[in-house]
Amino acid sequence: MTPAARVQTAIELLEPILDGAPAERVLTSWARRSRFAGSKDRAAIRDLVFDALRLRNSAAQAGSGGTARAIMLGMIRLNGEDVQALFDGSPYGPAPLSDGELPDTEVKACIDLPDWVATELAKDLGDSFAEVEALLKQRAPVILRVNLRKATLPQAKAALAKEGIETKAHPASGTALEVTEGARKIRNSVVYKDGLVELQDAASQAAIDLLPLPEGARVLDYCAGGGGKLLAMAGRFPGTYFAHDAIQSRLRDLPERARRAGVDVTVLQSDVVQSAGPFDLVFCDVPCSGSGTWRRDPDAKWKLTPEALEETCALQAEILSKATDYVTDQGHLVYATCSLLARENEQQIDRFMQDHPNWDLCYQHHWTPLDGCDGFFTACLRRSN
Ligand SMILES: C[S@@+](CC[C@H](N)C(=O)[O-])C[C@H]1O[C@@H](n2cnc3c(N)ncnc32)[C@H](O)[C@@H]1O
């Protein structure tokens, strides 16, 4: 596909996304029915759509309108590319610019968040809001977690380099490698297929590093989903691992990922969690707004509603309270979100402490993109003596 044809396709895909369709679904379904598009075309179109979503308000300002075409035009203008060369009327490309479509207004940065989220985040992040918001406009780094069961960090780094994947150590965690070159080769690399590395943000890894996990502990990942945190725990601390999720289908990929990582996991249905317990550590990586990962999933920031956030917060409190039933007397309950919002983080823990006076807070910590990571929060709780 020509660069112009990629831009026109991105505009056509952005239209339904702006109308409410999930970006991932729109892109996947287009890729399935567009066999003519090669992997480079698909990657380029995905980047155009996601870049436009990351910068949606700024791009709309630069393109003088909120339509998919205006946003794409504005985004290309913001990137300093030659808009006229891409909107040139060539076959499959966007129609040429009409009078007034390329405004002579100055391009100015806008806040690329829904207003209500910006207000709340500004309050929560205080002085660092502007810098964090600016980072949310950018693509996230690609980070790998080295599976210490299979390799040390230098061994994994060297093996990756042999396959054309260059990395550097990430300061947030001793298991994290930031990919500096060859990110698109990861999923097909032998190093990845053999389970030496997994894709995982550095903040998640740093949160796992903090866990009080004595050797041989019985650990329940109560909201295990695809098992990312469970595999990180198991890679770091030998123990007996159990996985649970309210939606069993979310655990679908876990057995294969665990096999690749060389980890044994017992999957528990909801009705047997109590009888399989108690556990020395119960990890609750609860459903959340995902605001800490909006660089990776910028569609989500425009689709979050105050009502949905309210419901999510109620569910988080319910899960945390329920999980207390499964912890041994001396054990730990760990709460985690990939959110930047205090309402889902510190405030959630404050409320838990008020409602559960027999629990103490051992530590809490949050990361933001200023740490070179996704936004992430974790708190560790223990029954009072
Ligand atoms: C943030 S995701 C977990 C991601 C996973 N820990 C990982 O690292 O890949 C949250 C998970 O919580 C699950 N969940 C939702 N409600 C739940 C509940 N009441 N009890 C347990 N799990 C729940 C969701 O199905 C979802 O898979």
UniProtKB/TrEMBL annotation:
Domain SAM-dependent MTase RsmB/NOP-type: residue ranges: 132-385
Keyword Transcription regulation on entry: no
Source species, domain of life: Bacteria
GO molecular function, one term: RNA methyltransferase activity
Keyword Nucleotidyltransferase among record annotations: no
Name of one Pfam family that matches: Methyltr_RsmB-F
SUPFAM superfamilies: S-adenosyl-L-methionine-dependent methyltransferases
BP terms from Gene Ontology: RNA methylation
Active site: 338 (nucleophile)
CDD domains tied to this protein: AdoMet_MTases
Keywords: Methyltransferase, RNA-binding, S-adenosyl-L-methionine, Transferase
Binding site for S-adenosyl-L-methionine: 245, 285
Family, as annotated: Belongs to the class I-like SAM-binding methyltransferase superfamily. RsmB/NOP family.
PANTHER family xrefs: NOP2 YEAST -RELATED NOL1/NOP2/FMU SUN DOMAIN-CONTAINING, RIBOSOMAL RNA SMALL SUBUNIT METHYLTRANSFERASE B-RELATED
Descriptive protein name: 16S rRNA (Cytosine967-C5)-methyltransferase
Originating species: Cognatishimia maritima
